[in-house]
Design brief:
single chain, mainly alpha, 3 domains, two-stranded parallel ribbon, binds iron/sulfur cluster
């Protein structure tokens, strides 16, 4: 490896000035206020306005802290964990109010009276191509604006900008395990077989083929751990009971126990087929993470910090992250030599890394406010509604 003769920046760069940080945050403040007060589902009720104001302030303060401290991961994680916790609160409350239960009768699903989730998107493609039929039992528009067309359009917009950054800034499930992984001070299980990284691809392939064969979104029907905290098919017979037991066991194992023991996002890194599918779009997204090989002395602190197993000794030596990188920034924040950076494809790696970070964060945060912010506001509204 070449000798580094450049003067390296401090491991923890000096914070930005308050005024300059405020100036950089101003566009996000305006965007947050606009998006929260005009979000779908907002009403003229005082509690709805309070929920919108709290959420706009929350998203703005976190962005300000990212600007001021130049640290990304810590502040993004607060947003992401909040999203993961508040989504089921708002969602379950809505289900109970509208249907009296989290269990949805199969007839309701077939009639399309269930909100669409992004998870089955890869499972819809082959059946749609071969038979021109959507195998997800939802409606295209949806009564509350959460139908298939809206969700797919939102997913596409976020994906083209962020690639697999979706899994760090938009997924409303991943925050639960990220929150659990943050609880212990150190990992109980440290040695993780790197071959587990391939499992999501195997699950994706199996679920795509099975969905085509049985003409149902197989992952949603059988393997989604998050059914345990959202809606599920009401169990009326032994088969339904088995489905629900699988959901609960997968949730307990992959979202609670393993993240606690490993301090990694194990459901995302080892199992999620949507995450594997989303990795492909890292090839399209203009943003990526790059390692300056001249700066890097391979201490592998970044590999240890990565919650998604997206770095290996070999990839660090090549100056790259693996395809599964979700651009969370944990590696950037721990690197003592500031060798790993956000990078805009087609530019020199040494091209103003802080500018590339800012461009990524403006895009990601604007979309996070629009998508995740609405969910957070709904969760806050639900809590206010129940307790006030
Ligand atoms: S933490 Fe930084 S210096 Fe250490 S291996 Fe990773 S990129 Fe290289
Ligand atoms: S490589 Fe870095 S940015 Fe990518 S998932 Fe791992 S820690 Fe996050």
């Amino acid at each position: 490896m070449a000798t580094d003769t450049r003067i390296l920046p401090l491991a923890h760069p000096a914070p930005r000035g308050i005024l300059w940080s405020l100036f950089l945050t101003l566009p996000i403040l305006i965007w947050s206020l606009f998006m929260m007060f005009f979000r779908p589902g907002a009403s003229a009720e005082l509690l709805s306005h309070i929920a919108s104001a709290i959420t706009a302030l929350f998203m703005t303060v976190l962005f300000f802290m990212m600007m001021r401290t130049r640290n990304t991961y810590r502040w993004r994680r607060i947003f992401f964990v909040s999203l993961g916790v508040l989504f089921p609160i708002g969602f379950i409350h809505n289900l109970i109010v509208m249907r009296g239960s989290m269990g949805i009768p199969i007839e309701e699903m077939i009639a399309g009276r269930t909100p669409f989730c992004f998870m089955p998107i890869p499972l819809l493609i082959l059946p749609a191509v071969f038979t021109r039929t959507l195998v997800f039992p939802g409606s295209i528009v949806g009564a509350s604006g959460h139908g298939i067309a809206v969700m797919v359009a939102l997913w596409l917009a976020l994906t083209l900008v962020m690639g697999k950054g979706w899994c760090s800034y938009a997924c409303f499930f991943g925050g639960i395990e990220e929150g659990v992984a943050a609880i212990p001070a150190r990992a109980r299980i440290r040695k993780l077989d790197p071959r587990w990284r391939y499992l999501p691809w195997a699950v994706l392939l199996a679920m795509v083929l099975l969905s085509l064969a049985i003409f149902e979104p197989a992952y949603c029907m059988w393997l989604c751990p998050f059914k345990a905290v959202t809606e599920y098919v009401a169990a009326r017979n032994m088969l339904g009971l088995v489905q629900n037991v699988i959901f609960v066991l997968l949730f307990a194992g992959l979202v609670i126990v393993l993240p606690f023991l490993t301090k990694k996002r194990t459901q995302c890194a080892w199992f999620c087929p949507f995450g594997a599918f989303q990795s492909i779009f890292n090839k399209i997204s203009i943003f990526e993470m790059k390692i300056d090989k001249e700066r890097c002395k391979p201490c592998l602190l970044c590999q240890n910090a990565c919650p998604n197993l997206s770095l290996s000794k070999e990839s660090v030596a090549r100056g790259e992250t693996l395809l599964s990188c979700m651009k969370c920034g944990a590696c950037v924040d721990v690197c003592p030599r500031k060798a790993i950076v956000w990078h805009i494809k087609g530019t020199q790696i040494a091209w103003k890394p802080e500018r590339a970070r800012l461009m990524f964060l403006y895009s990601a945060w604007a979309l996070a406010v629009m998508f995740g912010g609405s969910i957070i506001a709904q969760g806050i509204y639900t809590i206010l509604h129940v307790f006030i």
